[in-house]
Amino acid sequence: MHLLLLLSLAVSISIVSAFSPPDHYLIDCGTTASTIVDLDHRSFTGDGSSPTLSPSKSLALKTSYPDPNLSPLYHTTRVFTKPSDYKFKIREKGAHLVRIHFYKSEFKNIGTTCHDQFHVSANGYVLLHNFSAPKGNPRIKDFLISVDKDELVVRFIPVDKTSFAFVNAIEVISAPKDLIANEYVISDQNIVHAYETVYRVSVGGVKVTPFNDSLWRNWVPDDEFLKLDDGSVKSYKKLHFDGRINYRLGGASREVGPDNMYNSARFISSLNDSVPKLNMSWVFPVSKGYSYLVRLHFCDIASISIGMIYFNVYLNGNLVSENLDLSSLTNYMLASPFYADFVVGPEKFSDVIRVDIGPSKSSMPHAVDGILNGLEIWKMNNSMSSLDGEVCVNWLESKNQSGGQMSRLLSLTAAVCLLAIAFLVMRRKTEAKDYVGWSRVPVDVSEIDLKSSYPKSAVVNV
């Protein structure tokens, strides 16, 4: 397993000013209405009156009896029986948030033999493969994509002639500069990744809705992820903070994490003269075969004085940050947010990511001995630029060609994909040979310069 620690050291240009993205597309699919206001008071434009939808054969469906409790975005649907594109002109290249909304409702006028199963790609990345939306609540797939062209193309591809693709809404928004680093130094190579949000968790708090987040994100409570089998959950104290969150240059901005996430936490503290011997633990199921970016959010809203909080951080049982000193990392300011990023490489026998926070050798009695305010986990694309399976975009496209052209193209793209898979397998075998137990590197994050504009990294091989 690779653990790449990337600390949040990007300098925020302005902490107080509201985020104003250069690119900001909010598209409601399946309608010609010029303005649709969702439950979070955002104005969406109907794709029927927007130039983003490329000319194609499609159906615009409207729910006969819309659920009044659902956002108006899910009252209409755009359905495709052939590959179709949404094209977004990009004013400023760089990382973009791409959110795709799905709500499986009634699909009339399509045919009883048809079913929803499709692929979704964007600028060379496979976002979804053989996707079929579950019935019930709306589903939002949340991605972060680096765009180096003047246009972002989101393509919907039905799997075969008996299937169709559909979408209810699409958001394309420029990501803040300090949200995430696009380049990681892995095996001496600079690799730009696409990401899919797998978990976004408010620890110790309630659900945070898009209305209370400057990037319009959902943060869910952490209760279902807590590890309870050792009975120590009774020692996991919850805390809600009514004071002001002190955002600062060099730390996390409001776009990195909202006030309503940082003002709650779970923490460990001693009740007597001894430091408790326990960790807070969370377990998150993940898909095998991918690297994951794990972001941990910290904000000391529990201490009564600076310089009294030290703790260790573990990922899958490995110590990744020892004696983390929040006071020095936040320029000795209480209630000031900070985050740390860790890249967890694919593990052969593990399908979970476990996070542990607990006391360190420097922890003190009658003080806070561990705290966590929030947590995010992003899946990173594999070597085939896919976030969903060992497939590449060319292979998906070849499935929708016809006649001899399809046969020739399929052979060519299949060969390319097989070579990519072979390269991936050989690289993993080579990396496996290099692992010798596990070598701990210095991760005393208190020594890192907070004034730096670039993330510092420390690699742990296990």
Automatic annotation (TrEMBL):
Protein name stated in the entry: Malectin-like domain-containing protein
Membrane spanning stretches: 409-426
Location of the Malectin-like domain: 27-379
GO molecular function annotation: ATP binding; protein serine/threonine kinase activity; transmembrane receptor protein tyrosine kinase activity
Source species, domain of life: Eukaryota
InterPro entries: ANXUR1/2-like, Malectin-like_Carb-bd_dom
A Pfam family it matches: Malectin_like
Species per Swiss-Prot/TrEMBL record: Deinandra increscens subsp. villosa
Keywords, comma-separated and alphabetical: ATP-binding, Glycoprotein, Kinase, Membrane, Nucleotide-binding, Serine/threonine-protein kinase, Signal, Transferase, Transmembrane, Transmembrane helix
Signal sequence residues: 1-18
GO cellular component: membrane
Coarse class of the protein's main subcellular location: membrane
Localisation per UniProt entry: Membrane
Keyword Transmembrane: yes
Family annotation (PANTHER family): OS03G0124300 PROTEIN-RELATED, RECEPTOR-LIKE KINASE
Membrane disposition: Single-pass type I membrane protein
